[in-house]
Specification:
2 domains; 7 helices; elongated
Length: about 150
């Protein structure tokens, strides 16, 4: 068996993070990080190496209503969830609070940690791409690079 060797030409390094706040422009990743968090772009780093999942992972969860109904069951209060219209423009705290409220009567009420990852594992990528421009961008970039 030959060990894997690579060259810089076939490698792609990126980070997948929450934007924490709505983005003014999806492709201006380093500008967003500089303005919001004071991050400096490393030499040679490109905007496509920053993949934003969305403002927070809870936004991803609330987008896939079918997966939520399956995961949380009959006690899910779907009407307490935010509208999907321009969902990425919403403040992360608003989305997080709405998700907690909508699942408060469920046995597996939403919480960060193991429960949040269980919910994430059930999401449909096509649904996320349809409603989340940042997720669609991440998939598009990864498809091009990998």
């Amino acid at each position: 068996m030959t060990p894997y060797t690579s060259s810089a030409a076939d490698e792609f390094v990126a980070m997948w993070i929450d934007s924490e706040d709505p983005l003014s422009h999806d492709d201006a990743a380093w500008q967003h990080l500089a303005q919001r968090d004071g991050w400096q772009r490393p030499n040679g780093a490109a905007d496509e190496q920053v993949l934003f999942m969305t403002t927070c992972m809870e936004t991803m969860v609330v987008v896939d209503r079918a997966a939520m109904r399956e995961h949380y069951g009959a006690n899910l209060q779907e009407n307490a969830l935010p509208s999907l219209h321009q969902i990425e423009a919403r403040n992360r705290h608003e989305v997080q609070d709405a998700l907690a409220h909508a699942t408060r009567n469920c046995k597996n009420q939403y919480r960060k940690g193991r429960r949040s990852f269980e919910a994430l594992s059930k999401l449909n990528a096509n649904t996320l791409k349809q409603h989340l421009p940042s997720f669609d961008r991440a998939v598009r970039i990864l498809d091009e690079k990998l």
